[in-house]
């Protein structure tokens, strides 16, 4: 027998689950001494091994049938004489009860197991993804090492029938910790990194660590139980992509107690205030009633909308929408009147008579009304004659079937029904960490019912799909398909609050993304078009192409492949698009400029869904037909085939075309892509206006001295109260073209100060106007919506007027028009911070990490699987409920051999080896494998309309026991705040309460404090001995809004006067904590001493109010202080200089040279309130200066005249330059064909045409076109 055969036999024995003995241990150690050429877990079997297996099976059959036969060697028989040695230990221990010896019984067990193993059909249980992830031989992990096959390795059993086990659902602590490490979203590890972690644990002395194979098996068991499944789709353009189960994710949210406790299902009428999405008009008034929460439960009755209900006053109404008001549930109802029509008594619904009813006024629901209407002398509520259109005409009632009521009542079957609107987001990001672009289109979403504080938390953002080949609309098709089924049938989910099953109705509240992506959703041409706005029909200049790449570069419906770093001008096949030849731009007159700008800065007629469906219904069809026309053309021009054969091929190809070729956007119920794609403030404002203005400002600083001054001012800027880190002037100036949104967020708050004296006054005013817009837009809570909208519209108009005063060329940027639609979107969706995309943009880093640590062979599938496991980890560690008594996944009897290019299913059977965890047969869920994919999809196979979660029936879920993870895994999250820092859970310690002191310092007598010398009455010191009282003077105190207030900071506080409460500004002089006081026992300050200030008029240059300090001081309670505020020195009037006075540190060592810094002129009591501060902007509103409104028509006219004159002057200069330099000598000028000779025109220094150097082509084009037009 060869070594390979012997090793194979030993491996087969080692795979059996049996109690090892000393002999077995020796046998299992043999493979370590044998030169193994291949991995022992799946060796390729040659012909001689097949022969050996045949003989082995025969021998095992004999051994199994005769387990008691004598063995050739027995220690109790003398081999030479054949006489029994009665004194041997074995003979003494001989079983005299005729029971089979232990060795015989063990041998029988082993032989039976091995015989069954050898006769079992061959099953390829290894996933192709597992093989593909090994890029080279060095990436093979420790699963092949001898530690992976150590005979004393701990056997792990996943007992899913015992939720009381300490580490449920994991077998033990080791597997729990390693499973968490493998699936932390922000810590994506490769195979090598996982091997390094295992090595480190072993080196630290940890034993019984599970191998990679064991962890993979545990993952395959847990994922079907409480994870999300990935679904394969074959798109209409022929691309294969994977989407995670939307219904499963929503069901997880409902079963997650951390999330469920914060979710809101009913809109709220909050009066004039607005801070959440459910308080805005889109959810409160506009959303289709069939997508809102259709019922409420009062005592034992369920009231559904569009079902007649009886009020306590005896009247009958038709509820149409449920909502909250002052913590009570209300209904918006239509009045109902009894009527006899054609002799039949019934009801009419007066939809024009709408009013609100408190839920406590409801008496009878529809079923009870039906059963008691006769006793009340009322018509049958199941008979509705219609809705009155006039005195004698009625429109039919179409909301429900009057005989059965609301359809959700029947589908719910007595369970609650709730609505689940979502923010749906799509963006493209690179799958590489390098500069090589690897475009991945990704879809994410988050629950709109979460409060603003939690809606953008990383743990609450959910991944749906990504692909580097499928365009967004093709991917959206699969998502919409899931959404449509869920809206039609509802999603059954376990409600962790009520501990019962509920029916969930999902909907799309809005779709978020950057401007090109939102234009693509709206089937709109984008910013390059003549009608560039997706929300209205404003007309721009079709010949203006001066917008930047970020505005127009993303509107492409062809994705880039993963190995191509193509630009936005590349086609799907990698070929460069030919750039259109630029034609001479038509000159605009002054009146045309004025008309264009006036239209640009106003909102035009709004677009709507119905209008676009009518006019652009063929856009998506044309795109798909264009993709297939190339394939048809390739067949028709193929050589070597006859015409009939080509016709047959074309006919077969046409049959593969998808039947439905309309855009999936129009299949989303109650979604208008023109009005439900709100203005994205990150790209429009920070990466739009602020970026434009800052780049322009830096570009205008031609002198190095000016840039040095700007760098010094930025580095010296006092950022207290702004909540940002000190600024790096060198980076912000020298790398102005490579800044991020965070940088622009800081710049917009400091630019009006640092640019003083470096730019013209008009540009400073434009910066100040932009800052006023930013402070309003980034307000999280709006106290008076109507007043806020008016202020925002005024600020936007003033900003546009100031921009127009600079140059009309700014209005070639479409974002200066798009901002006009923001006030309406705030009214409809809530504060702009709700639909900001910073959280989603940050989530792109997780997708990128998953792409980097994959093999790039199936990015859509691999990333979706990775994200699904992240969902599972989040759900388990959040204490989420999952199904327990479900069927376990069992290995398939056989698995068909994969065809070349075919991917394996998303869930493979468990491998049968000694690493397999033992699973009870009724403790897991059956995995629905994803369909196999092929490299070339030539036939459209529509996916199943029901996702894995939607296939679960109410009966199956009702028979399920819902359990959670044990307490031990949840306690791991509290170690070093692991859950909050790395998983994004909201489990961190609560913020320090208001008044908490930090940096206490040393004790001192009261007489040594500044407060003791102030001639004021301090309430906290009343009744105390001022001679012996000791105090602390902390350096920092926490305010009510969470700000850390330092001594020397400026604060806003409320002062109660005889005329009311006044808001004032003061400077913190001292923070006092009296030893022995009640406040000191809880670690809080007793009072804060501030110096008063006088708030004056606005400064002419800064357009912000000036303040001056006073010698008066005042003791304040912590509750009186609202926030910290940023104030700046009035350097413009005090001529503060820039000198080399700042210390420079290199490698954390102080260098000898000094850096430039601003040296303020002191003593000075002249300060300016920085109302460009974004934090606590609403608190600073009383101190803002309202600038005088500019006369827009006059500004536009003057700017148009200046622009026209500048263009004429430029043309004249170009003509003069061209006449001086002359056309290219060998190339005939276009004017020559008209018989025009180039001669000198009397310009001093002019030379003859024969000696002129070649002018640039742009100058020749301008000159030639001008000559042609002139002649």
From TrEMBL:
Composition-biased stretches (Acidic residues): 543-552
Signal found in the keyword field: yes
Biased composition (Low complexity): 557-569, 915-929
Comp. bias (Basic residues): 575-588
Keyword Heme: no
Keyword line: Signal
Region spans: Disordered: 125-155, 543-593, 887-947
Extent of Polar residues compositional bias: 930-941
Residues of the signal peptide: 1-22
Name of the protein in its database record: Uncharacterized protein
Annotated source species: Mycena alexandri
């Amino acid at each position: 027998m060869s070594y390979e055969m012997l090793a194979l036999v030993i491996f087969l024995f080692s795979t059996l689950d049996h109690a090892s003995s000393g002999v077995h241990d020796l046998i299992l150690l043999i493979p370590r001494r044998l030169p193994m050429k291949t991995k022992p877990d799946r060796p390729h079997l040659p012909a001689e091994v097949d022969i050996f297996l045949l003989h082995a099976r025969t021998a095992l059959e004999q051994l199994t049938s005769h387990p008691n036969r004598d063995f050739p060697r027995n220690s109790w028989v003398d081999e030479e004489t054949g006489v029994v040695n009665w004194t041997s230990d074995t003979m003494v221990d001989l079983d005299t009860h005729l029971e089979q010896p232990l060795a015989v019984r063990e041998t029988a067990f082993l032989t039976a197991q091995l015989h069954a193993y050898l006769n079992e059909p061959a099953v390829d249980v290894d996933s192709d993804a597992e093989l593909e992830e090994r890029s080279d031989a060095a990436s093979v992990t420790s699963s092949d090492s001898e530690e992976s096959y150590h005979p004393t390795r701990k056997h792990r059993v996943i007992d899913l029938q015992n939720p009381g086990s300490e580490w449920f659902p994991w077998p033990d602590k080791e597997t729990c910790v390693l499973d968490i490490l493998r699936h932390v979203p922000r810590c994506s590890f490769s195979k090598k990194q996982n091997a390094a972690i295992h090595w480190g644990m072993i080196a630290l002395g940890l034993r019984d660590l599970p191998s990679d194979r064991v962890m993979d098996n545990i993952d395959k068991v847990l994922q079907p139980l409480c994870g999300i499944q990935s679904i394969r789709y074959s798109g209409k353009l022929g691309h294969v992509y994977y989407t995670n189960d939307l219904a499963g994710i929503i069901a997880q949210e409902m079963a997650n107690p951390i999330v469920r406790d914060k979710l809101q299902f009913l809109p709220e009428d909050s009066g004039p205030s607005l801070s959440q999405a459910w308080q805005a008009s889109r959810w409160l008034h506009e959303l289709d009633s069939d997508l809102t929460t259709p019922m409420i439960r009062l005592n034992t009755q369920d009231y559904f909308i569009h079902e007649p209900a009886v009020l306590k006053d005896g009247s009958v109404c038709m509820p149409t929408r449920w909502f909250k008001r002052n913590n009570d549930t209300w209904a918006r109802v239509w009045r109902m009147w009894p009527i006899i029509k054609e002799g039949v008594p019934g009801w009419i619904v007066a939809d024009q008579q709408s009013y609100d009813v408190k839920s406590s006024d409801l008496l009878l629901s529809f079923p009870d009304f039906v059963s008691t209407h006769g006793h009340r002398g009322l018509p049958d509520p199941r008979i509705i004659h219609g809705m009155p259109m006039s005195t004698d005409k009625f429109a039919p009632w179409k909301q429900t079937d009057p005989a059965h009521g609301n359809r959700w009542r029947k589908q719910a079957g007595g369970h609650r029904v709730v609505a689940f609107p979502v923010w749906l987001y799509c963006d493209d990001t690179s799958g590489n960490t390098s500069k090589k672009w690897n475009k991945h289109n990704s879809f994410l979403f988050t629950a709109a019912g979460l409060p603003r504080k939690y809606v953008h938390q990383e743990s609450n953002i959910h991944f749906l799909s990504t692909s580097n080949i499928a365009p967004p609309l093709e991917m959206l098709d699969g998502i919409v398909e899931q959404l449509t089924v869920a809206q039609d049938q509802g999603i059954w989910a376990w409600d962790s609050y009520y501990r019962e099953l509920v029916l969930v109705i999902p909907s799309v509240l809005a779709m978020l993304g950057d401007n090109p992506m939102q234009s693509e959703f709206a089937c709109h041409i984008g910013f390059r078009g003549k009608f560039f706005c997706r929300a209205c029909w404003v007309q721009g200049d079709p010949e203006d192409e001066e917008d930047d790449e970020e505005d127009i570069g993303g509107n492409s419906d062809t994705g880039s492949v993963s190995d191509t770093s193509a630009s936005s001008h590349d086609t799907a096949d990698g070929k460069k698009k030919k750039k259109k030849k630029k034609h001479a731009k038509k000159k605009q007159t002054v009146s045309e400029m004025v008309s264009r700008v006036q239209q640009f800065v106003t909102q035009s007629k709004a677009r709507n869904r119905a209008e676009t469906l009518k006019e652009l219904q063929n856009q998506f069809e044309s795109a798909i037909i264009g993709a297939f026309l190339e394939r048809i053309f390739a067949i028709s021009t193929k050589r070597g085939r006859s015409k009939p054969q080509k016709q047959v091929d074309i006919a077969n190809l046409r049959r593969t075309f998808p039947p439905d070729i309309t855009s999936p956007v129009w299949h989303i119920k109650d979604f208008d892509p023109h009005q439900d794609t709100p203005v994205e403030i990150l790209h429009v404002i920070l990466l739009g206006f602020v970026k434009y203005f800052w780049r322009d400002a830096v570009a205008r600083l031609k002198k190095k001295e000016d840039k040095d001054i700007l760098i010094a001012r930025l580095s010296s800027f006092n950022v207290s109260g702004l909540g940002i880190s000190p600024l790096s002037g060198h980076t912000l100036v020298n790398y102005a073209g490579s800044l991020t949104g965070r940088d622009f967020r800081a710049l917009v708050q400091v630019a009006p100060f640092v640019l003083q004296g470096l730019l013209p006054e008009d540009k400073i005013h434009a910066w100040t106007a932009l800052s006023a817009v930013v402070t309003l837009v980034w307000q999280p809570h709006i106290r008076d919506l109507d007043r806020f909208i008016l202020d925002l519209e005024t600020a936007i108009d003033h900003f546009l007027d100031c921009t127009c005063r600079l140059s009309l060329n700014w209005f070639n940027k479409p974002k200066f028009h798009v901002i006009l639609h923001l006030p309406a979107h705030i009214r409809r969706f809530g504060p702009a911070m709700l639909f900001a995309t910073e959280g989603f943009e940050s989530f792109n880093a997780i997708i990128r990490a998953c792409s980097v640590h994959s093999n790039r062979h199936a990015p859509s599938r691999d990333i979706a699987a990775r994200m699904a496991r992240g969902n599972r980890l989040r759900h388990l560690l959040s204490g989420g409920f999952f199904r327990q008594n479900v069927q376990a996944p069992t290995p398939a009897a056989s698995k068909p051999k994969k065809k070349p290019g075919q991917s394996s299913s998303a869930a493979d059977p468990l491998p049968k080896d000694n690493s397999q965890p033992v699973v009870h047969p009724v403790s897991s869920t059956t995995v629905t494998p994803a369909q196999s994919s092929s490299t070339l999809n030539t036939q459209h196979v529509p996916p199943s309309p029901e996702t894995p979660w939607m296939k679960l029936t109410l009966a199956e879920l009702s028979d399920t026991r819902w359990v959670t993870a044990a307490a031990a895994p949840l306690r791991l999250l509290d170690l070093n705040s692991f859950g909050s820092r790395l998983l994004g859970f909201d489990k961190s310690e609560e913020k320090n309460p208001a008044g908490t002191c930090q940096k206490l310092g040393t004790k001192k007598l009261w007489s040594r404090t500044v407060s003791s010398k102030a001639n004021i009455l301090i309430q906290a010191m009343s009744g105390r001995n001022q001679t012996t009282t000791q105090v602390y003077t902390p350096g920092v105190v926490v305010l009510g809004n969470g700000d850390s207030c330092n001594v020397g900071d400026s604060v806003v506080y409320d002062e109660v006067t005889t005329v009311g409460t006044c808001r004032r500004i003061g400077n913190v002089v001292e923070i006092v904590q009296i030893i022995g006081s009640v406040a000191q026992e809880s670690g809080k300050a007793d009072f804060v001493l501030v110096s008063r200030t006088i708030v004056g008029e606005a400064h002419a240059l800064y357009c912000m109010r000036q303040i001056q300090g006073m010698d008066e001081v005042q003791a304040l309670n912590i509750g009186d202080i609202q926030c910290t505020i940023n104030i700046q020195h009035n350097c413009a009037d005090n001529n503060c200089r820039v000198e080399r006075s700042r210390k420079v540190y290199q490698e954390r060592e102080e260098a000898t040279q000094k850096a430039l810094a601003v040296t303020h002129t002191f003593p000075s009591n002249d300060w300016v309130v920085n109302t460009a501060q974004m934090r606590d902007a609403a608190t600073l509103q009383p101190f803002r200066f309202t600038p005088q409104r500019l006369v827009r028509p006059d500004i536009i006219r003057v700017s148009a005249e200046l622009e026209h004159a500048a263009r004429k002057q430029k043309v004249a200069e170009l003509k003069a330059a061209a006449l001086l330099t002359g056309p290219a000598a060998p190339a005939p000028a276009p004017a020559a064909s008209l018989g025009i000779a180039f001669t000198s025109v009397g310009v001093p220094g002019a030379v003859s045409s024969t000696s002129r150097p070649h002018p640039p082509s742009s100058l020749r084009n301008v000159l030639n076109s001008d000559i042609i037009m002139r002649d």
